[in-house]
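Supplementary Methods S3. Complex input for the zinc ion-bound model.
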Amino acid sequence: MADTSAAPDSSHGLESPGFTDQDWMDKALALAREAAAAGEVPVGAVVVRDGRIIGFGRNQPIGSHDPSAHAEIGALRDAAANVGNYRLPGATLYATLEPCAMCAGGAVQARIDRLVFGAPDPRAGAVGSVFSIPDDPRLNHRVKVAPSVRADASRALLRAFFQARRGKVIPE
Ligand SMILES: [Zn+2]
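Predicted complex, serialized as structure tokens:
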């Protein structure tokens, strides 16, 4: 059972071979909550290989003054630095929101094996919604995709964040 309240670093490198996609997505959701607490759009991501997390990321473009500081890019950078290789074959990227064109492109560049995402993003998603980068035959690497894992939890976080930002009371 994933402990979503734990600080992400406390599970860094933790081997959890019995974890399901839902369990790993819970780790990414914990990072999305961290992003929201920092005033960033709540999106989180983890990279998993051989039953352990090798990279973490959360959305932080505002705080870091970096348009590329999306959760997935952060997780890919962290994972590549941790394993000492810019390519991550055999790894799975978990993202709470359907990745944008930049992040889906990053997954292809890293030779990620699988991409698992939460809520679809009909406005900017590049994993089937607006573009479909992971399975574009014109690219030289294909990423397997599993959509809509813990999508409701991801959507609820995003909805609460934007409602709070508009100053509305969130109805229960
Ligand atoms: Zn992105």
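The beta strands are 44-49, 52-58, 92-97, 114-119, 144-146. Residues 1-12 have pLDDT under 50 and may be disordered.
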